Amino acid sequence: MTPRTLHPAAWWLWALGLATAASRTTNPFLLALIATTAGFVVAARRSSAPWSRSYGAFLRLGLAVLALRLLFTLLLGSPVGGSHTLLTLPQLPLPHWFQGVRIGGPLSPEGLLFTFYDALRLATLLICLGAANALASPTRLLKLLPGALHEVAVAVVVAVSFAPNLVADVRRLRAARRLRGRPDRGLRSVLGVGLPVLESALERSLALAAAMETRGFGRTAPVSPRLALATRSLTMGGLLACCAGLFGLLGADRAGWAAPLLAAGAAAVAGALALGGRRTVRTRYRPDPWAAPEWLVAGSGLAAGAAVVLLSGRYPDAFTPGVVPLVLPALPLYAALAVLLALLPAVAAPPPPPLRKTARP
Amino acid sequence: MITFEQVSVQYPDAAAPALAGVDLTIPEGELCLLVGPSGAGKSTLLGTVSGLVPHFTGGTLHGRVTVAGRDTRRHRPRDLADLVGTVGQDPGAQFVTDTVEEELAYGMESLGLAPAVMRRRVEETLDLLGLAELRNRPLAALSGGQRQRVAIGSVLTVHPRVLVLDEPTSALDPGAAEEVLAVVQRLVHDLGTTVLLAEHRLERVVQYADRILLLPGDGRPAQLGDPAEVLAQSPVRPPVVALGELAGWSPLPLSVRDARRRAAPLRERLAGAAVPPVAPATPAVPVARATRLTVRRGPIPAVRALTLTLHAGEITALMGRNGAGKSTLLGTLAGLHAPTAGTAVVAGLTPHRARPRDLVRQVALVPQDPRDLLAAETVAAECAAADQDAGARPGSCRALLARLAPGLADQAHPRDLSEGGRLTLALAVVLTGGPALLLLDEPTRGLDYAAKARLVAILTELAAAGTAILLATHDVELAAELTHRALVMADGELVADGPCAEVVTASPVYAPQVAKVLAPQPWLTVRQVAEGLAR
C-alpha cells in the first residue's frame, strides 16, 4: 500500500466507535482489550510528527485518573459495602452533622474493585481520545468545517498553537528575572512575569494577524444583497427554532411540537451554513480523499461500537460484572470478537508518509 | 511597478511624520535595497507597499502609493495579496499551519486558486527554493535559514509581482544568509520579480542590488539611484565602500571582488606598515572558567565537554551557526541552565546555585531581545529598580546610563525607545551591580551602523576598565572591529579558539570584507587601514 495520510474523519469515527464500546461496559477484560486494540493501531499507524507523541500523554492521564480514583476510595471509602475487610485505616472522628462522609475506616476489596472498574472505563475513554489525537491531529479535523465556519476554525487553530508559545514566554521571562537579580522561584516570580507575557502574546498575535492579512485571509466574494439577507434570516430563524425546540424537549411536559421544531431549526442552520459558504473564495489544497481504506477504518470502529451496544443490551450481566459477591468476571466472547474487529486499521490503513530525520535545532 | 507620489505618513501621538515627501518610482524586475539609519521610516515605507500602512497600523497616509496600478488606499492588504508578498524579520511569527507543504499552499487557498494550479505551484516552489526534502516536515523542526526560505516560498506560490522583505537575514548566520540571498537573486533573475528589501547588514546584500533607495532620516528627501552613487552620500555604508572611499577609488566598489581587483596599489602602500596590535591592556587574570562543561537541553547536549577560560579586560567573540550552542553556553555562565556534567565557575561562584542577588553583581547577561529585561513603565523607574536589585546606591544606574547614552529621557517608555536605546538601557541595568563578566547575545541585531559604533565604544571602555566580555554574534565585522579573541562553536563543541585576527581570517565564511580585499595582509577593519596609511 502506498504511504499516505488517511482522512482525519475516518480516524475520529473509528475512535468514536471504540469509545462508544468502552462507555457501555465496566468489564475489566473487555476494557483492557479495547485499550490494547487502540494502542496497537496507534503503534502501527502513527506518523513521527510532534502531535503523534500526544498518545503517551493521554496514556499517562488515564493512569493518573485510575490512581486518583483508587486513592480517594482508600481515603473516603466506597458506597459499595462488602462482606470482607481488606484493611482498616484509622478513622477521623467527624461531627454528627457530617453524616454520610467518613475519612479512613474499614476498606473492602469489593469497594476498591468497584472503583477500579469504573475508573478503568474512564481511562479507556481517554485512551481512545488520545489514539484519535495521535493518528489525526485535531487541526486537520478542523479544516473539514464548512467554508462559512472557516474563520472560526482558523481562530481555534491559532489559539491551540499559542499554548506552547506562552509556556516558552513564561520560561524566557522568568530567566530574565533571574538575570536582574530577582528570585526566579516561587509564586511571586510567576505572577511577576504575567504582564510581560501578556504583552508579548499580544504582540505575537498582532504580527500573525498582519501576516495573515497580507496573505489574503478573509477575502470574500461579492454576494447579492438578497443572498446575504437570506443567509442572515435563515441563521437567526434556525437558531431561534433550535432554542425553542430544546426548551420544549427539556420541559416537564415534553410538548409534541418540540422535536419537529428542533429538526426544522437544525435544517435552517445547515442551509444558512451552505449559503454562507458562497461568500468565501477559499479552496482546499490536496483535500484528503475518502476511499476504500477510509471506509474500512471508520466502518471497523463503528461496527465494533454498534456490536458492543447491541450485545450489552441483550446480556447486561456480562458487561457490568457485579462485585458483591467477589467473582472473576467472564469475558463475553462475542463482544471480544467485535472489539477485535477494530484492529483492522492496523493493516487496512495506509502507512503514514515517512518524515526524514528532524533538522538540527 | 511601485510608484510613490508625494507620500508622507503621520502616526497619531508622534511629533514628526514617520515618512515625508517620498516621490519616486521603482521599475519592474529590479532588486531595490532600502537603506537608512534606524527610525528613518524603512518599515513604514515597506508597510505602505503591502497596504498594512495605514489599513492595519493606523496613522494617516498622504499622497498616493500604487502597486501595478492598484492604489493601496482603496485596496486592503488582503486585496493586494495576489500582487505583493511580504516576509518579515521573524518568519516564525507568520506561519499559520503545521507543515511546510501546507504553509506553501495557505496563501493560494485564501485566494481561491484551483486545486490543480495549487498542486503544480507547490511542486515548483519546493524545487525553486530547494525545499523538496522538507515537504512533510513540521515547521517547528526547521532551522533558521530553512524557516526563512519557507516563509519566502509561502508568499511566492501566489506568484506576486512584488516581494517585500524586511531584514530577511538579520537573524541568520552568514551561511544561512547566503542561502536566502541566493534564492532572492534567483527570483529577480529567473522570474522577473520586483524585490524591495530592507537590511541593516549592508555588507551582505549591497552587491546584489540594482538600485538603492536611501532614507537619510535627517530631513533630507528620499533618494533612489545607482548603488555606488547613493552610497557615496549615505550615512550607512558597508566596510568595502568605506575602504573604497578611504583609498579614493571612483566609482566606489560594492563587492569584495570589485575592490580586490583595484586593491593592488593599496596593498603595496600598506606593505610596510605594521597592523595596530589588538591585545587587552590588562594582564590575564581569569574571571570565568568552564571545565569539561556539558549542558543538555532536550534530548541532545547543546554544549559538549567544553573547556574555556575568560580573562579580565578581554573581549571575546563567540561565533558559529544558528543552533551551535552559543546561547546555551552564555545562559549556563549566567546560571540559567544547570550543567549536566563538568563545572562552570564565575568569580568564585557556581552560577546555577548562586542566589540571583549575589550573582547579578558578578555576571551580567543581555539576552537576544533586550526587552525581556525591561519591565518598568519609564526609564527612570527601570533605573531605580536596577539599583534596588543590585543593592547599589540610589542613582547609580541613572548615572551609568547618562554616561552610556546621554540624552535618554527619564519619562520615556522603554518599549518606545529605538533598538539602540533599548540595548543601552538594558546594558546600564545589568551593569549596575558592577559585574566582572558581561555576556551579550547577538547585541547588534537590528542596530544601524551609528548605534553599532556607539556599542563598540562602550564595550571597549568597559574592557579597558577590566570587565571580561563575551559576545555571541553572527556579525563578523563587529567581531573584527571589537574583539581580542574569537571562539567558533559547532554542534556544542569549541572548534576554534585564538586571537580574533587569526580565527576570522582562517575561514572565508567568517572573514570580514577588508580582510578578504587585502588578503594575504592581515588587515581586518577600515579603522586599522586608516591608521596604517596615516603612519
Automatic annotation (TrEMBL), chain A:
This is Cobalt ABC transporter permease. Signal peptide: none annotated. Keywords: Membrane, Transmembrane, Transmembrane helix. It is a multi-pass membrane protein. The keyword Zinc-finger does not apply. The chain crosses the membrane at residues 29-45, 57-77, 148-167, 233-251, 257-275, 295-315, 327-348. It is found in: Membrane. It comes from the Bacteria. Its main location: membrane. Coiled coil: none annotated. Pfam families: CbiQ. It comes from Streptomyces tateyamensis. InterPro entries: ABC/ECF_trnsptr_transmembrane (IPR003339). GO terms for cellular component: plasma membrane. The keyword Metal-binding does not apply.
Automatic annotation (TrEMBL), chain B:
Probably part of an ABC transporter complex. Responsible for energy coupling to the transport system. One of its GO terms (cellular component) is ATP-binding cassette (ABC) transporter complex. Keywords: ATP-binding, Cell membrane, Membrane, Nucleotide-binding, Repeat, Translocase, Transport. Its main location: membrane. It is a peripheral membrane protein. Belongs to the ABC transporter superfamily. It comes from Streptomyces tateyamensis. GO terms for molecular function: ATP binding; ATP hydrolysis activity; ATPase-coupled transmembrane transporter activity. It is found in: Cell membrane. Residues 2-243, 288-516 form the ABC transporter domain. This is Cobalt ABC transporter ATP-binding protein. InterPro entries: AAA+_ATPase, ABC_transporter-like_ATP-bd, ABC_transporter-like_CS, ABC_transpr_CbiO/EcfA_su, ECF_ABC_transporter_ATP-bd, P-loop_NTPase. The keyword Zinc-finger does not apply.
